[in-house]
Structure formats: structure tokens, C-alpha cells
What does this fold into?
Amino acid sequence: MARLKTFPGGLHPPDNKAWTAAKAIEICPLPEELIIPLSQHIGAPAEACVAVGDKVKKGQVVGRAKGFVSVPVHASTSGEVTAIEPRPHASGRNLPAVVIAPDGEDEWVDDLAAADPEALSVEEIKDRLRDAGIVGMGGATFPAHVKLSPPGEKPIDTLILNGVECEPYLTADHRLMLETPGKVRQGIEILRKVLAVDNIYLGIEANKPDAIAQMREECAGSDIKVEALEVKYPQGAEKQLILALTGREVPSGGLPMDVGVVVQNVGTAAAIADAVTLGQPLIERICTVTGSGVNEPKNLRVRVGTPLAHLVEQCGGLDGEPSKLIMGGPMMGMAQLTLDVPATRGTSGLLIFRRGDIKVREPGPCIRCGRCVSACPAGLLPTTIAAYARLSMFDETEEFKAMDCIECGCCSFSCPSLIPLVQTLRYAKGAILEKRRKMQ
Ligand code: SF4
Ligand code: SF4
It folds into this structure.
């Protein structure tokens, strides 16, 4: 049998997806309060354009985009604006948010404009994506209209749809492909038109055979290549996915467009379909709520702005005292201090672990086993870069290509001495960026 496509390095953490892989998506009821952060994308935060006391409708813009690399944010139900103030945010800080008390009517704005993508120009489609606040839903939250506007000297000939979902525990994209394959396909066809490409891949890890079969059936008769990929973390990272599917290597410091590729997540493709054909902004997403600390793990369709505590309630509440909360997956997600943080457009999962399930041990000395080097999918020397970073020798960390680190965590995960390598690499990258800023 032919070997499945993949990339060098990486590892095989237990996937723990069985808890939710067979759980159909449930609609999460509206909470008592929606907290819509003005910053939930890469780029400039939106600027509030409503006032306390205003009545808003579902889909109404409550924060305007500020600049090209920015998107508006929208009310995710109808109701009254009760506050515009800093609230707990996934970043760990308190950041400005528009707070809405739902009125229970869930009434859409009147001016949603359905359209036939065939009748729209490429620029009109991109305008619709910007106005709908479409961002990368795999977690990167980069505005889609920007990603779909590469400079003229970077011609794009390939589109890759990312249905890999290699992070352990998460099954949101898996369920999306199983339950709404037509939406994903519709989004792919819109992306095909925008990028004017016919070389299209949909990559899915081989541990989702039902989703692979479903998407192959949906794409039958088209030129879309639905590829089963080896189950290996981080198969879904952009550079690793491009290498696995096309054999093209994104150069050090480069972007996918440098090798003629645009990558979009399957959830983003589905949101693009709704934005272009129905005129609907991005006000909800699928989120996997799972882990040993939650009574009934589920996949939920969640309104943007729903407090994490409300998601937990829909899953039967906490099972014991939680010791760790993570927004996203366990490898690249962000640890959270409170369940008061709201779900945003990038919230693919909420993981909760019970006290006792997380083993805390002190790191030991490096025993030079080389496991971090073998595991690094970016071909780096994590132990060497971390050693320089600990000595604040950031020029040396740059020479050893610290900026190519994708922060996948494979080095830390594989280290028998539990050395916090990814955290040190992240610190080095921050110091390098700071130095570059000062030199500008
Ligand atoms: S150095 Fe960066 S890219 Fe390499 S394994 Fe560690 S976190 Fe991943
Ligand atoms: S995996 Fe840990 S112990 Fe082994 S070489 Fe890397 S840093 Fe050292």
C-alpha cells in the first residue's frame, strides 16, 4: 500500500478524539450576556460604533474595521448594548468588548443581501468577506480578504483546504465536514473563483475516514483532490501541510504565497459560503468542549461572545475541580485563567482537565538525547536556540532561525527532562521582534 503523504519530524501524541468524534453538533443556547471582543483577529482591533443603551440586531456591525488588516465585529444576536468596557480576553488581558443582553428574539438585521457568487466580481466577493468579518478559523484568525489579495509578484496557482485538525481532542472540523460537506464545497468553489486556480487539494488526516469519504463524495466529478494524510502532529501547520501535499518548501522567513499557495481552513470555507451567498457575517462557529474536567464532552455551535462558563454548563458542568483550562488544542492552545472569557471566531475548542490529571514536575538538565531535534518539523535545533535565549544571546538565536519556529510544542512534548523549550523559543522570538521594531 502506498505510504500516506506527510512531512519530516513531528510526533504522535495520543489523539483523544474519541470523546467527541461521534458527537453530532448541538446548538448552544444563548447565554444571558454576550461579550463581543473588539479584538478577535490578527491586525488592528475594531472600533466600537454603538453606544450603551442601543438596541442592536443579529448581524449588525458593533465594531468597525480600522485599516486594511482588520475586520468588523458583529452582534451575534439581537438585544441591548449594556456596556462597552474591558472584559477578560483569551490573551489573558482585559480588552475592550461590546456587551449585549440578548432580547430573546434573535432577529437578523434587515439588510442581509443574498447573492449568486457567479454574478459577483472577485473584488465584490472580497468586499463581502471583509464586511462579514471572515478570518482564518483554524486558530490563526488572519483576515481572509487580506490572505486572498497577494501582491502581483506572488502568483498563486494552488489552493489548499485544511481539514487536518491534527490537534488532539478537537473534532469541530471533523463534524463540520461530516454534517455540512456541501457548505465546505460551496466555499471551495468561491475560493477557486477568487484565486483563479484549478489546482485544489483538501487535506484530511487518515484518522477521519468518514470525513474523507464524505468529502470525496461531495467533490466527486470535480478536480478537487481530497487527500488522506498520515496521522502526525503538526500535519495541519501551513508549511507542513504544503510540503506534504505539493512537495513545495516554504523558504525560511517566507509565507505560503512565496511558493504559490493559499491555505484556508475548512471552517473558513463554510463561513465564506454563508458570507457570500447569504450575506451572513461570522457570528458563530463550531467548538469542541472536552477533557477530563467536563461531565459531557460535546461539539457545540456557539455564538461569538458566549462566555466559556456557559459552554461548560451545556456540557453538564465541571467534573471535579479544574486544574487547567485551554482555549484551542492542548499543543498550541492558550491556557486560560477564568471561564469568564468569551468564545471568539478563533475558538476551536475548550479543554478542561481535572486536578490530578495534569502532572507537574520540575524540569531536569538536558541529557543531549536529541529528541527535540528529531521532533522539530521546522528542522531547528530547539535545545541550542533555547540555550542561547537563556543567555539573552538573541543575535545567535536569530542565526539559528528561531523565527522559523511555528510554536508547535513538539520539542517540549518530546523532552524527557521536561525542559520548557517552546516557551523559551517564544520568548526568543519576542525579543527578536522587539529588536527589529527598535531598529525601524
Ligand atoms: S522549535 Fe518550534 S517548530 Fe521546532 S518543535 Fe519546538 S516549537 Fe515546534
Ligand atoms: S529533548 Fe530535552 S533533554 Fe533531549 S536534547 Fe532536547 S532539550 Fe535536551
